[in-house]
UniProtKB/TrEMBL annotation:
Gene3D superfamilies: Farnesyl Diphosphate Synthase. The keyword Membrane does not apply. It is an enzyme of class 2 (transferase). This is Phytoene synthase.
Length: 278
């Protein structure tokens, strides 16, 4: 039953995030399965907000289920909760990061535009940095405090990268994550974005945010030596794979309105070889 629960979580991450799946497949089995379970939790919250028929009510139910879970009651027959229960028994998990993740996803129910970088990074912490904080007790249980800032920085870098890649998809959901004040400062208006105008001003805004993401990646990389050896390659790989998305967008001349940038399997193998030789 437990192995089936973990297999269920593995199928979720394998389907929804090939990048994370490939990176964290290098972990030892116990840590690897724990990462799958945490991803299953995050994915379920994300799906409620993006695809739920009544997301506010469904999120309220999910939050109540998590409260019951923390009190020792596994909610219903959902295999994700069964796998997560095993994770909480094996690792010194920190519930606050899970609460913050739910709060971050909830923001998408009432906030659809962001005006400043500070607002954007507040959101990014809640939906992405929290994932790193959830995983720290699994990946580096003896180094959680030393790696906390690095995990937050990596989440910020990854989420900003997501936003720079998914501008077009977010517009379809009536969401603008690119800070509007930053656009205006470069002479790029909301109407330009809504009409998918790829201009020098757009590239200027895009690159300013990409530079911000790069700074966060560098901060994350500066502390990666604190991870135990069995987790160092997976974490570094996930960061390198994600950072490469920015390069992929540049190679496509910033045309994120007509095509979704991604890192090919061949490129990932080349990146892995580079990491191994460092």
């Amino acid at each position: 039953m437990l192995e089936q629960a973990y297999s269920h979580c593995e199928a979720i991450i394998k389907h929804h995030s090939k990048t994370f799946y490939k990176a964290f497949s290098f972990l030892p089995p116990t840590k690897r399965k724990a990462v799958w379970a945490v991803y299953g939790f995050c994915r379920q919250v994300d799906d409620i907000v993006d695809e739920g028929t009544d997301p506010e009510a469904q999120l309220k139910v999910f939050r109540a289920q998590f409260a019951s879970f923390l009190n020792g009651q596994v909610p219903g027959n959902d295999p994700m909760w069964l796998a997560l229960e095993d994770v909480f028994q094996k690792f010194p998990m920190e519930p606050q990061a899970f609460h913050d993740m739910i709060a971050g996803q909830e923001m998408d129910l009432y906030k659809t535009k962001y005006y400043t970088i500070e607002e954007l990074e507040h959101y990014s912490y809640h939906v992405a940095s929290t994932v790193g904080l959830m995983l720290l007790p699994i990946l580096a249980p003896k180094k959680v405090n030393e790696l906390r800032d690095s995990a937050v920085a990596l989440g910020l870098g990854m989420q900003i990268t997501n936003i720079l890649r998914d501008i077009s998809e977010d517009l379809e959901r009536q969401r603008i994550y690119i800070p509007i004040n930053e656009m205006i400062a470069s002479g790029y208006m909301v109407d330009d974005l809504l009409n998918h105008r790829l201009t020098e001003e757009f590239i200027e805004v895009w690159e300013r945010l990409a530079s911000r993401a790069e700074d966060h990646y560098e901060k994350a990389f500066s502390a990666m030596h604190h991870y135990p050896l069995d987790a160092r390659l997976p974490v570094k790989s996930s960061a390198v794979f994600y950072r490469a998305i920015l390069k992929s967008i540049r190679k496509k001349d910033y045309n994120i309105f007509e095509q979704r940038a991604f890192v090919t399997e061949k490129e990932k193998e080349e990146l892995l070889a580079g990491i191994a030789n460092q």
